[in-house]
Amino acid sequence: MRRLVLKSIKINTITNIVLSIVCLGLALCLVYQTHHYHKLFKKQAQVLEQVEQTLEETLDKQLDNYIELAQAEGPIKKTYTNYPKKNMGKFQLSFYTPTELKKPYEKLKTATSTKPKEGRTIAVDPKVIPFGTLVYIEGFGYRIAEDTGSAIKGNRIDIFMMDYNKALSLGKPYANVTILGRK
């Protein structure tokens, strides 16, 4: 009987030692994984910070280039002030064309008395985005608030285009809008 008890104690001791070694191994694995993931997340944070900085620099350069081009074209004579950038959130976009306005392009005038131009003119609610404001529309680029319309209320922007079929094909998407400057 004594031998059986001693054998049982010996087996339990060996089992406990093996389980302790396994637990220690698992603990070491968890420590290693935690350290590894910490390094990985730190690297990802650095990369994201660099990407964000590069995007901001690129956006600033594009804005400067756009303002220079717009001023060289003639209709935009005034310079834009150092207006703080303001993310306005998501706006519903729609598109309008000379066809929908039922006027020949030569006779079109915006609410600010400019000739509408594809790639520049947008219609806005002037209570939300004042006329003369330079905005960046995600996916569509830089535009100037030059026009309005009876259906343009609140967070809605109507983008001027020349091609009626292309305007129809774009539907009514939503996009983030950022105010970049004002005359």
Quick synopsis:
The protein is of the alpha/beta class and 183 residues long. The chain has helices at residues 2-73, 98-101, 164-169; strands at residues 86-96, 121-123, 133-137, 141-147, 156-160, 174-182. It has a six-stranded mixed beta barrel.
Task: Give a description of the structure.
- The protein is of the alpha/beta class and 183 residues long.
- It has two domains: 1-73; 86-182, Beta Barrel (Barwin-like endoglucanases), CATH 2.40.40.10.
- The protein contains three helices and six strands; from the N terminus they run H-E-H-E-E-E-E-H-E.
- The protein has helices spanning 2-73, 98-101, 164-169, and strands at 86-96, 121-123, 133-137, 141-147, 156-160, 174-182.
- A six-stranded mixed barrel has the order 1-5-2-4-3-6.
- It is rod-shaped, with a radius of gyration of 31 Å.
Task: Give the helices and strands, then pairings.
Layout: H1 2-73, E1 86-96, H2 98-101, E2 121-123, E3 133-137, E4 141-147, E5 156-160, H3 164-169, E6 174-182
* Individual helix count: 3
CATH level 3 topology of the largest domain: Barwin-like endoglucanases
Strand neighbour order, sheet with most strands: 1-5-2-4-3-6
CATH class division of the largest domain: Mainly Beta
